[in-house]
Amino acid sequence: MKVLALIFDGFEEEEAIAPFDILKRAGVSLTIASNNTTVTSSHQFKLTDIANINDINYKEYDALFIPGGPHYKFLYTYEYGHEIIRYFFLNNKYVFGICAAPTLFGRLGFLKNKKYTCFTSMNDDFGGTFTNQGVCKDGYLITAKSVAYSLDFAYEMVLALMGKEVLNKVLDSIYYEK
């Protein structure tokens, strides 16, 4: 399985790094892409060697992952990012979003008739059903409420992409007691 993660300056580091780590432990092929080769998080940590978003073929991926954080403000106006998101939703591929990211999906019209969660104060009438759950799955859409659910969110991503057996191996490897 191949996951494309989009991050931009201002991404929330735990909402990105915890899922990146768990996905890699599960054997998922992960590409982290942006419009810069170095991206600065909301708390000023820098990630380097980021793939240039213009140099990848997003149609080759099985899933799209967008963490939350203040970078959502840029994403609201980034048309190429909207094109990528549309592709994944319209082609029934997995879309993962945490905290502020699901609000972008809602603004683009993709939460209509869907169950979802997001950072509570950012919820709006997106035409779907907001749940107050930490993590919510509806078909190919998996959303999470906030940074507090980063690991639970990552576990749901692995379960969806790789299955229960792989998830259990990951959980065992990190000494997670079920």
Task: Figure out the total of helices.
Answer: 6
The CATH class name reads Alpha Beta
Percent range of helical residues: 25-40%
Give the termini distance in whole angstroms.
25 Å
Low-confidence stretches: none
What is the helix/strand order? Answer: EHEEEEEHHEHEEEEHH
- Going by CATH, the homologous superfamily would be Class I glutamine amidotransferase (GATase) domain
Classify the secondary structure makeup into a structural class.
alpha/beta
CATH topology: Rossmann fold
Largest sheet: 7 strands, mixed
**CATH architecture verdict:** 3-Layer(aba) Sandwich
Q: Taking Cα atoms only, what radius of gyration do you get, to the nearest Å? A: 15 Å
Shape: globular
Quantity of strands, as a count: 11
Structural description of this entry:
It is a single chain. By secondary structure, this protein is an alpha/beta fold. Helix content is 34%, strand content 21%. The strands form 3 sheets. A 7-stranded mixed beta sheet has the order 5-2-1-6-7-11-10, sandwiched between helices. A two-stranded antiparallel sheet has the order 3-4. A hairpin with a 2-residue loop joins strand 10 and strand 11 (141-144).
What labels would you give this structure?
single chain; alpha/beta; 6 helices; Rossmann fold; seven-stranded mixed β-sheet; 178 residues; 21% strand
